């Protein structure tokens, strides 16, 4: 194939899209890439130079184009017929059916009987429009999203300490030269591989400190004098951080002038950590006193010169005390004077592609666009004016994700549910119960481009466009707004999510306009966000297309804000708040209900990610290269813990607790603690990690306890590999999709035929029943 130079390709008119500069579909690092069509196959992906990735991409990014013309791609709406089979339908029939069901459900049970579940992968335009669609077209308060499972604890901690929540309040490249980086509960070597280059300075100065119960690929970077790996007992990070705060205060390492000038609450904080002397902290966490002292020393040395950063990830945030743990990390940073300094700071590493923007524009239960509070009368008045409705037309706050999912199909709960950009049948905690709830609905509508495990349970499936087929914006982990650009034409049949929402809103007689044009929606988002904490009003597509770096807040007529807090924090008075926190057992939140750990020889189960797969795996399990590299769930277990239970390396293993049983393959790994096993959550069906996790939530953030459960581990009773990956498991779920009343397979072969699937692909390989 003759390849034209990329700029020339990109200048061709929109209907014949032939490549573009855009960003990766997956995680919040939003690595820059160029997509170029190739003859006879998926387009080519190349890394592009950009401050976050500097040309690098991980294996998921490199292979992301494999999904664009994937044989299992949905390109026609599916509607479940009276015989229980999901069958191809026209757009008019599908949208008509959905609108009729909304009208009937509202008439019979009220508007709050219709619910919506969004996703942190949606562009800003889609996330904004989804929040508006729920409040105005459906008239419901019942909307939340999968970011509740991701950023909610860190967001709550940031809001309470700083008065605003932007994951990294500084550009990621600020980390490059830092002397010390304390990385708590994050495995960036697998979850954001190109990010690792930003740890180089800290490694060179011996100042990289990684806190993880597992010796991860990231922890390995601390070897050979590059730093320290602290390997605490799972779920003891709060105590660890209180102990570090104690050391900083008692060893005279605190920045007294900064505390006096820029913070409130020092005296109460100092009292609250007084009892966390090093020996006690060490007994609770298992981390040696010498390592605690060395960590405090490295942080203080960096704070004085070279820079110190404290970063948190899901390993410390996805707990029932995740907000308090993130708060303790911020307290430690404030004691050292890091936040708001030009060379030091605190941040959380946002997860999903638009995990930052997706938490700002109104798909959260308590939120209106611009990171405004839905309970704030001034915010309601502002947004009502932009939407052209009476303030009273905007419902009040809804329910956080776990409560929302628990309300499905219950008296007084949600009876009809829309899912856009999430796969909660796999990724929500205690998934057996979640699937029961999804099955008990009067109607489930799922918008996706694949028949995810959640879509397989739906009554109506609406096929959407993929990232490379549409324009929009996302906001990366630094709070920088980026342009996603359409690079390839969409397959005939699929429609943009904005078009779908607009079509439904029109059928429902919504009292405001719903455009299907991303730039028009963004223009409205700017107005709705104006004056809010996440103010986008000064950003437009032309600015982003010029290559300018646009960090919010970016008010109209102003400039962006790469570094927050240099002059002031966002609380009234401009000071950051030190907030005393304590572990549950010593007087912290009494609502905390984590599983009791290690009773009767039980092991702690930690869950998380592998390099090859993304989230519920709905996308990456369908990429042949990734599925081949990681075909099924493997339980990482220390050889001694396995041998004591008669489990051979590579043998089948059953992981169980009162909530469920998962069946997978054992993989010996000396990187695990003797008392802890690790299971990725990327696999569905019998391999699901979330069969075992608890729906207990953090009382402040609503974050579930994903990271620590109690389990027994025994030689497998079901052959490993049963219901392993991709379509095989979809089949298993599908068989009982609607329960005993109307079980039935999906006519996927018919659906794909109707959509003009490529000839020569056997129906079975396309997930045909
Ligand atoms: N390959 C890949 N990359 C991804 C994603 C993906 O699915 N796959 N998802 C993206 C998203 S949405 C997110 S949120 C990020 C998540 O990125 P990370 O936070 O890096 O990912 P996790 O693997 O969930 O958790 C990180 C680490 O927490 C550790 N951990 C478990 N329990 C504890 C504990 O009690 N204390 C401490 N200190 N550590 C603990 C685990 O051992 C694990 O190594 O990744 C993003 N990038
Ligand atoms: N045990 C355990 N469970 C966890 C976690 C953990 O660490 N341990 N981590 C949690 C975290 S941090 C997260 S972020 C969640 C994520 O969990 P999920 O919400 O399940 O995330 P995805 O697998 O990304 O699901 C996104 C779905 O939407 C589709 N999709 C992608 N883009 C779009 C779009 O633009 N529009 C539409 N309509 N669909 C789209 C994809 O095909 C996929 O089916 O999982 C959580 N669950
Ligand atoms: S690190 Fe994240 S953004 Fe970068 S290529 Fe991998 S998945 Fe995509
Ligand atoms: Mo996430």
Automatic annotation (TrEMBL):
Task: Tell me the segments the record calls region Disordered.
Answer: 736-769
The family database entries (SUPFAM superfamilies) matched by this protein are listed as: ADC-like, Formate dehydrogenase/DMSO reductase, domains 1-3
Molecular function via GO: 4 iron, 4 sulfur cluster binding; metal ion binding; molybdopterin cofactor binding; NADH dehydrogenase activity
Task: Report the record's Gene Ontology biological process terms.
Answer: respiratory electron transport chain
The signal peptide, as residue positions, is none
Start and end of every 4Fe-4S Mo/W bis-MGD-type domain? 17-70
Q: Which keywords label this protein?
A: 4Fe-4S, Iron, Iron-sulfur, Metal-binding
Any idea what this protein is called? Molybdopterin oxidoreductase family protein
Native species of this protein?
A: Arthrobacter wenxiniae
Lineage in the entry?
Bacteria, Bacillati, Actinomycetota, Actinomycetes, Micrococcales
